[in-house]
Amino acid sequence: MTDTSTQSPTSSTAHEGSGAGGYVTKGQEFNRDTNYITTRITADGRDGFPVEPGRYRLVVARACPWANRAIIVRRLLGLEPVLSMGVCGPTHDERSWTFDLDPGGVDPVLGIPRLQDAYFRRDPDYPRGITVPAVVDIPTGAVVTNDYPQITLDLSTQWTAFHREGAPELYPERLRDEIDHVADLVFRDVNNGVYRCGFAGSQESYERAYHRLFDRLDWLQERLSTQRYLVGDTITEADVRLFTTLARFDAVYHGHFKCNRSKLSEMPVLWAYARDLFQTPGFGDTTDFVQIKQHYYIVHKDINPTQIVPVGPDLRGWLTPHHREELGGRPFGDGTPPPPPVPSEVVDPEHWVTDGRAH
């Protein structure tokens, strides 16, 4: 959930820091703001926002791992016909994510150039970071929620009337306690752990985060050595949450965030697990490596002052055999894979790995 607040990245509003200011506060560790707009869109409309086809717009950026989760879940569940998606560009300034990929730099549904316009429509004095993903109420143009952990859970549990035939159960009730437990560990030590490394303001805070990260990755390697997925024998919310960090690991976190004990491609079990998911419809086909690298290396100017975007790494390995099917498991349980992405949402082939590398 990327933040474009002008406040310090260790303040109460920080997620990925400020576009114009710094991401690192000298002598301090990185603390992520977890105060979101917690209004929910539910089947019963308890918060005043009932699930309705065509009423809401999911605003994302493909570069952002937190938003990428929502893209994956929406696609796996087949919600494209009822929940439209607006895509911001990979970079932003200190004010807001912008719709610079759209003609004229304006979202064609919301009619706004900046995501902050939807936040200010809800609250003209909105004091926190302008973050993705966000769900916007199209009739009013106001943000309903940016509570990214809850957004994907609600897509699974509240939008069931509009799931495609064959949609998987990503948050089955019988496994929710275990999914929540694993997802919490992954969030604290991996999803957020890479940021604690990258935005550390002292050697001590960096080393603490570094060891927590790789200790958890070792734990995940052991867990996944005997089972295909994190919880149960099918893909769940927990796998979605881990995948988006793993997909960015070698391209960004290993070098840019100094998470350099090992590359993902040097951790055999996690690398095979990540390739298994990448080659599963809904995961790799929502991943845009060019936008990912542009975001981190261009926006984080105090970490990468030249704003030079690396050419590597070589991405051909993502499409190599993973052999994880030998562990059993059924990716979609009793369901089926999603159909191909709608044409307007296909990742640019030159930003993918079809020829062996992202351009």
From TrEMBL:
The record marks Y253, Y296 as: Lowers pKa of active site Cys. Residues 1-13 have a biased composition (Low complexity). This is Glutathione S-transferase. It holds the Pfam family GST_C_2. It comes from Nakamurella endophytica. The active site is at C64 (nucleophile), Y195 (proton donor/acceptor). Residues 172-299 form the GST C-terminal domain. One of its GO terms (cellular component) is cytoplasm. Glutathione binds at W97. Residues 348-359 have a biased composition (Basic and acidic residues). Residues 1-27, 320-359 are annotated as: Disordered. One of its GO terms (molecular function) is glutathione transferase activity.
